[in-house]
Design a protein that fits this description.
CATH architecture of the largest domain: 3-Layer(bba) Sandwich
Structural class: alpha+beta
Number of domains: 2
Shape: globular
Largest sheet: 7 strands, mixed
CATH topology of the largest domain: FAD/NAD(P)-binding domain
CATH superfamily of the largest domain: FAD/NAD(P)-binding domain
Helix content: 25-40%
Number of helices: 13
Distance between the termini: 41 Å
Number of strands: 20
């Protein structure tokens, strides 16, 4: 509870069946899944003026849909497929070959994705409240959370709800509810933060003729002016435009406004260093110009909830199976951190034989709670497991699962921990969510997925 607030002086704005806190890829999928499963009133609250969170404000590629390796397999389905289909119908997405060992990516135009999230939520009947962020959670006499306080452009308001999904990324709901949390950086260094940026005026043909990615990596490695001597610079679904993931900002907190202010400033400074490097040193980039920075710096980890189960490194690397699985992950552990020399180093660890592991439902349920779920990067996992299961393919899958769980909890009038797993999994399968390790190689599966599968484009 936030001791600075006088709850009795804050007006009750409305009551809903389900409140989803944070409209990133996890929150949007949670709200859509809940409405699709029959929840009457769903309110999705978001601090920015658009939906999508990191998917639209920072990045431009979905990872986690496919396993890495020479024979990638598709491990994500359901609502995430609908999102990609709409982007594909707008000619705003393409499959990008395996990059940095993370597997095939789906690169998209993030401005079009904002409209896709809008379109899906409007069609489903999800109520959206932008420019609002959660600043408190209110419990009844039994300790059950029944209301939250939002800070909006209209002042503080209270929202009453029967169920809650925390997809804030920073576990804001769980923090204000006083639930057990782990703060990144307390036990091991938190992953670095990244400001992404976009360049226009790039001659990609000239770049490829000069050696492409291999040439770029060599020139970055040999340039002592760069804050990080690695990263991604890839074509967008926009002619002559490139998006980058190169900036690295470490040793700052994503939970402190002063620290974030410093991180944002440093991220912008580094982006200009890279722009200058590209123009002076990389063939094809001579006329390139910076045309956009991420809306905010990308925070990889901040708080993680302690759930009824914590996903571990051993679970990931042993391709663990769980009876209460609700989605799959084949992504490697990808841990971005600062080395002793101050340069970023990325530690990779792969699931043997390009395998996959199950993610159990219990990682989405805060320990001992009846009324709430978590989805996205604040779910219940150790640092290493989180570094594998934080791709947007998986965060969308988490949101989808949490939304269906909330719908079943409301329909059956049962607690989060009492949702019948077999009924839950049947619902997921009907949506097209794979719950068994896939066998079909994705160079065939992706073609069938794009050309033959029938999806309602709303």
């Amino acid at each position: 509870m936030n001791p600075a607030l006088n709850h009795s002086a804050i007006p009750l704005l409305k009551s809903v069946d389900l409140l989803v806190v944070g409209a990133g890829s996890a929150g949007c999928c949670a709200a859509l899944a809940a409405k699709g499963a029959g929840v009457k009133s769903v309110l999705l609250v978001e601090r920015y003026g658009f939906l999508g969170g990191i998917s639209t404000g920072v990045l431009d590629t979905f990872y986690g849909f496919f396993t890495p390796g020479d024979q990638p397999r598709k491990v994500v389905g359901g609502i995430p497929d609908q999102v990609v289909d709409l982007l594909d119908a707008a000619q705003s997405a393409f499959l990008r070959p395996n990059t940095y060992g993370a597997g095939t990516g789906i690169t998209y135009n993030p401005e079009h994705l904002k409209a896709v999230w809008d379109r899906l939520c409007l069609a489903a009947g999800v109520e959206v409240l932008n420019y609002s962020f959660l600043v408190d959670a209110i419990a009844d006499s039994s300790g059950r959370i029944t209301q939250v306080v939002l800070c909006t452009r209209n002042g503080f308001v209270r929202i009453e709800a029967k169920r809650f999904i925390d997809s804030s990324g920073d576990a804001d709901f769980c923090h204000w509810a006083g639930l057990p949390l782990e703060v990144a950086g307390e036990l091991e260094p938190a992953q670095t933060m990244t400001t992404t940026f976009r360049l226009a005026g790039v001659d990609l043909d000239r770049f490829q003729q000069a050696g492409g990615k291999k040439m770029l990596m060599e020139r970055m490695k040999n340039d002592d002016t760069l804050p990080r001597k690695a990263g991604s610079a890839h074509a967008m679904p926009i002619p002559n435009c490139v998006s980058t993931v190169a900036v690295r900002v470490g040793d700052l907190s994503g939970l402190d406004s002063w620290s974030l202010t410093s991180a944002e400033r440093e991220g912008r400074r580094q982006a200009l260093v890279y722009e200058n490097f590209f123009r002076k040193n990389v063939p094809g980039y001579e006329e390139a110009r910076l045309i956009g920075l991420s809306v905010g710096i990308g925070v990889r980890e901040s708080r993680r909830v302690f759930g009824d189960y914590r996903l571990t490194r051993e679970d990931c690397l042993s391709a663990a199976r769980f009876e209460d699985r609700v989605f799959l992950c084949g992504a490697p552990i990808e841990d971005h951190r600062l080395g002793q020399d101050g340069q970023e180093e990325t530690a990779w660890a792969y699931i043997p034989d390009s395998g996959v592991y199950d993610v159990p439902y219990r990682t989405l349920v805060p320990a001992g709670r009846d009324e709430c779920w978590v989805a996205g990067r604040c779910f219940s996992a150790t640092h290493d497991a989180h570094a594998s299961c934080r791709s947007m393919g998986q965060t969308m899958s988490m949101g989808q699962a949490a939304g269906i769980a909330a719908a079943l909890s409301l329909e059956l009038d049962c607690s989060a921990r009492a949702v019948p797993i077999s009924l839950f999994q049947d619902h997921l399968r009907r949506l097209g969510v794979p719950l068994e390790p896939p066998q079909e190689v994705a160079n065939t599966a992706a073609k069938a997925w794009k050309e033959n599968r029938k999806t309602n484009l709303l």
